[in-house]
Write a structure and sequence with these properties.
Structural class of chain A: alpha/beta
CATH architecture of chain B: Orthogonal Bundle
Helix content of chain A: 40-55%
Radius of gyration of chain A: 22 Å
Largest sheet of chain B: 2 strands, antiparallel
Strand content of chain B: under 5%
CATH architecture of the largest domain in chain A: 3-Layer(aba) Sandwich
Strand order of the largest sheet of chain B: 1-2
CATH topology of the largest domain in chain A: Rossmann fold
Number of strands of chain A: 14
Number of domains of chain A: 2
Oligomer: heterodimer
Number of helices of chain A: 10
CATH topology of chain B: ABC transporter involved in vitamin B12 uptake, BtuC
Helix content of chain B: over 70%
Strand order of the largest sheet of chain A: 2-1-3-4-5-13
Distance between the termini of chain B: 31 Å
CATH class of the largest domain in chain A: Alpha Beta
């Protein structure tokens, strides 16, 4: 779902982009005056830093963001700030705008947001920043012009590597493997697949990638493609599915097939989707980032911005509690680290 | 003897032969296509859900309508199934099946009533409800998802389990097929559906209850899609707001390939069911035969066009024969 949404979103985004462009033209006249007044209004900060940080997830009631925001709450409690969470019920492109505007008027210290759209919320965010509010994006970024820092969950290289590593561990670093991807033109997945191919060629000479099939992020298609893979490649040792829909469908097929336990499966999944299959032994491990850590890091980055420890410049360093020290990279981006591997032992701690 | 000749002449026979051919060729290439536990099960299991939807679709198309909303009805019913198990702990499985049937039937009733009373072509009405029902599903489900671990084990077992080597879903589909096939062939109201599809005006003049029959055809199609939704949840175990997207075209395609004329009045639910099996079996066979992923849709397209061309040729030949027969008797 995570990936399905980003992929599907691009189509909508183009239309929204046009609307947003038109809207921003219309807003220039009014926008100028608002910026100056609100800028002077918030300048009474003084010495005590305003550590009131509000999380805006893509939508409320989404277990993924419940987990990440809980991580943020833990961090904010640690540094004795004030945590709050607001957000829309559905993840439509401009639904977050009114919440940002309200927070700007309330004069919070910082906003941590997962953007439903890279542009639609840009003006609202810039107004907030003009009012002195620090803006951190996580999970989904906006255009860099609209935020101070983006917390990136993982790099493409890290995502590709963890999947190949997990599979190679499970199949003894040798044998035929296949990839069950999302749509054939899915940008993220294709980038990862290219990196995985390179990783396999360079570091795992005994692993042979025999096929890549596309389940279109559809349960049924992914399910049937898994069946076809297993039939057309009787020697198959493992499957990598770098999409949450694909891995769940493949696991569901494997769990009731003759190949259960004989063909390894790994990839990117969410614990709630995969719990059943990890518990029954169909799947040994799968990867994703830990959303709680993501929210935790975002909260600390926001604190560092509010306190002026960092400004978003490349090379800025800040401390993030139990996660240690982090450095701001290019484009004001902070990398959480390597993806998190979920296994039978730790899956019980997660609910998203 | 006449039974055998009728079988050889039947429109469905060609499709059945094509199906057997696909299965045999694929099995020669890879015996596990049929002769392995998974292969045998998938051969019967994969088409079961589409067979149900295609039966309903065939009945509607025979009355010279079409029901494009089936995929959204299926999706809504699948999500409802998940929600029932989540929100009403311990709900009996049989009750969930009944609710799925009734719920689908109710959505079908809306379709049928709009088509029959508003006198707008079914293509337009059901295209509208295709989007409307899916929209409701998106609003309702949001980004939530039903996971396999949310559903009872017994229910999930229905989706993959077998009785005497035959998957339960295939048995359900077969029962529905036999009932629908018998009804459409032997029961007066079933025959009236053909009459309405052949010539709605004549059927009306003759005194058939056209409105009522059309509405019931849509109710049956909706109810079968609703049932298919419950089975979808049992089989795939994961349901989000997009479950079943694209099923409507598969269902129409299955009916057309199976010899149900898109202009109504001819074809059988048996044909549609065989069409559904052929469609999905080809999908599974092509990768084994080494046809790349991207060509598979093209093959399905060729199949549909081929079926329509064949239909047209057969119709022309028959009308020529009828004309000859008339001329002969006149002389």
């Amino acid at each position: 779902m995570l990936f399905q949404k980003t992929v599907r979103g691009t189509r909508r985004r183009r239309a929204i982009g046009v609307i947003a462009a038109a809207a921003s033209v219309a807003l220039i006249a009014t926008g100028c005056t608002t910026t100056t007044t609100s800028g002077s209004g918030s300048s009474g900060g003084g010495d005590t830093k305003n550590l009131a940080i509000t999380f805006i997830p893509k939508n409320l009631g989404n277990p993924y963001f419940d987990t990440s925001d809980k991580g943020g709450e833990t961090a904010i409690k640690e540094f004795k700030g004030t945590y709050a969470q607001v957000g829309p019920a559905t993840a439509s492109p401009d639904a977050q705008v009114s919440y940002i505007n309200t927070l700007t008027q309330q004069g919070v210290g910082g906003i941590v947001i997962s953007a439903n759209d890279p542009k639609a919320i840009g003006d609202a965010l810039n107004e907030a920043r003009d009012a002195g509010i620090k803006v951190v994006t996580f999970d989904s970024d906006t255009d860099p012009a609209y935020r101070d820092v983006f917390i990136n969950q993982a790099t493409s290289e890290g995502i590709a590597k963890v999947q190949v590593d997990e599979l190679s561990k499970q199949i003894g670093d040798a044998g035929e493997v296949a990839i069950l991807s999302a749509a054939a033109n899915a940008t993220n997945q294709n980038a990862w697949i290219d990196l995985m191919k390179k990783d396999i060629a360079d570091n795992h000479p005994n692993i042979k990638l025999v096929d890549t099939v596309y389940g279109n992020d559809d349960d049924q298609t992914s399910f049937d493609k898994t069946a076809a893979l297993l039939q057309s490649h009787p020697q198959l040792k493992g499957i990598i599915s770098p999409t949450t829909v694909g891995i769940a469908a493949a696991a569901r097929y494997l769990s009731t097939s003759d190949f259960k336990g004989k063909v390894a499966l790994t990839g990117l999944g969410t614990p709630n989707q995969m719990r059943e299959f990890v518990t029954d032994g169909t799947v040994t491990s799968f990867a994703l980032w830990n959303p709680a850590d993501l929210g935790y890091l975002a909260a600390y980055a926001n604190k560092a911005l509010i306190e002026g420890t960092i400004t978003g410049k490349e090379g800025d360093k800040f401390d993030a509690g139990k996660l240690g020290s982090f450095t701001v990279g290019a484009d004001a981006t902070v990398l959480l680290g390597d993806p998190y591997v979920f296994t039978k032992e730790n899956i019980g701690e997660f609910d998203f | 003897m006449s039974g055998l000749r009728a079988f050889a002449r039947a429109r469905e026979t060609g499709i059945l032969l094509a199906l057997v051919l696909v299965v045999v060729v694929t099995t020669v290439k890879n015996p596990s296509f049929v002769f392995s536990g998974d292969g045998w099960r998938d051969l019967l299991l994969t088409p079961s859900i589409l067979v149900l939807v295609a039966i309903g679709q065939a009945i509607v198309i025979i009355t010279r309508s079409v029901d494009l909303s089936v995929s959204s009805v299926l999706g809504l019913s699948a999500y409802l199934t998940g929600r029932l198990f989540l929100d009403v702990p311990g709900i009996p499985i049989i009750l969930v099946f009944l609710i799925g049937l009734v719920f689908g039937g109710a959505l079908g009733l809306i379709n049928g009533a709009l088509v029959a009373f508003a006198r707008v072509p079914a293509l337009v009405i059901t295209l509208g409800t295709l989007y409307a029902y899916r929209g409701i599903n998106v609003v309702w489900a949001g980004s939530n998802r039903i996971n396999a671990s949310d559903l009872p084990k017994d229910f999930l077992a229905l989706g993959t389990g077998s009785i005497l080597g035959i998957p339960i879903l295939a048995i359900i589909a077969l029962v529905a097929l036999v009932i629908a096939g018998w009804y459409m062939r032997n029961i007066r109201s079933g025959r009236e559906l053909y009459a309405i599809g052949s010539d709605p005006d004549a059927a009306n003049l003759y005194g058939l209850r056209v409105t009522r029959r059309i509405i019931s055809a849509f109710i049956v199609s909706g109810a079968l899609a609703g049932l298919a939704g419950v089975l979808y949840a049992a089989r795939y175990g994961t349901v989000n707001s997009q479950a079943g997207t694209g099923f409507e075209l598969d269902a129409v395609g299955a009916a057309v390939i199976g010899g149900v004329a898109i202009v109504g009045g001819s074809g059988t639910v048996w044909g549609a069911a065989i069409g559904a099996v052929l469609l999905l079996t080809i999908n599974r066979a092509l990768p084994i035969l080494g046809v790349p992923d991207f060509w598979q849709r093209a093959v399905v397209g060729v199949l549909i066009i081929g079926a329509i061309v064949l239909d047209r040729l057969l119709a022309l030949r028959q009308s020529r024969r009828l004309v000859e027969a008339r001329d002969d008797t006149n002389v």
